[in-house]
Amino acid sequence: MARPDINRSGEMEVFVAVVEAQGFSAAARRLSMTPSAVSKLVTRLEKRLGARLIARSTRQFRLTPEGQDFFDRATAILASIEDAERAAGAAVEAVGRIRLNSSSVYCTHVLNHLLPQFLALYPGVTLDIAQTDAVIDLLADHADVAVRTGPLKTSSLVARKLGETPLMLVASPAYLERAGTPRHPAELAHHSLLRFSYTRSIRDWTFRLKEEEFSISPAGAVQVNDGEGMRQLALSGIGIARMGAFAVASDIAAGRLVPLLEEYDPGHREAFYAVYVGQGGPLPSRVRALLDFLAEHGRVGP
After folding, report:
1. Mean pLDDT, consecutive 10-residue segments, the chain of 302 residues?
2. Does any domain span residue 3?
3. What are the CA-CA distances from residue 206 to residues 96, 217, 253 (Å)?
4. DSSP character at residue 190
5. Number of domains the chain contains
6. DSSP per residue over 259-288, as a string?
C-alpha cells in the first residue's frame, strides 16, 4: 500500500512531461520547475518503483521497456483522472487534446471539411492529427482514435463503422490518350499500374463478368504509401489506380479521371472504422465526443 505522503499522480505528471518533452530541462520549463527538481523527482520515482525508467546519457534520451510501460499506463491514468474531475462538475465538458491518426485520403476528402463544425461544437478541444495509411499501434503511438480500413487485428481495439466505399479503377484522360483505354482486364498487363507500398486488406485486383473471373497483382514501376498520393499520381497521368470511389467521385464528375472496366467490377468494398482502445475504463468525454461526431457526420459512402 502506498504511503499517504506520496503524490503518485504528481509524479506521473512530471514523468509524462519529461517523456513528451524529451528532456528534463524542456519539461522543467513546461512545469515551471527547475531541471534539478525534475531530475530528483524522476530519480525518486525510479527508486520507489525499483526500476530504471529512463536510460540517461549526455547525448541520448531513451525509455527503458519498464519506462515505456509506465508511460503508457501513466498517460491513461492521468487522462482518466482529468476526465473524472470534469465529470464531477455540473456538466461534463469535452475539453483537452485528442490525438487522431487517419489516412491522408480520409483527411482530405472527409475529415478536413468537418473540422470547422466539430471545433465550433467543442471549443475546448484541440486536435493533434497524424496522417498515415500504415496500420499503427494506438498505444505505442499514443493515439486516442485512429481511422482505419479493413478488419481489426487485435481484440483490445473497439471499432465504430464509418461506412464503406466501392473500389474502382481510374486513370486520367491524358494517360488514356497516350497509352490507350483497356477494354478487358487482360490488357492491363500492357499498362502502368499504380500500387501501394503497404499491405492492404484486398491486395489483388479482381475482375468478374458472368462466368469470367480475373485476378492480377499490380506490379507497376511506381508505388506510393498513401491514398491521396495515389490519387495525385493518377491525376498526373502516371498510370491506372485503384481507389475508393469516395476519393475520386469529384474528379470523375469534373472529367479529371475516367472510370475503367466498370462492367468487370466484382463488387469489392472497403470499410472504414473509427478505432480506439476499449480496455481500461470509461472513455474521456473529448474522445467520446469525437467518436460520436464521426459516426454521425464522418461517414464514407451512401
Report:
1. 64 88 85 88 90 78 87 85 59 79 91 94 92 69 81 69 92 96 92 81 78 80 86 95 93 97 89 78 83 92 73
2. no
3. 45, 9, 25
4. G
5. 3
6. EE-GGG----EEEEEEEEE--SSSPPHHHH
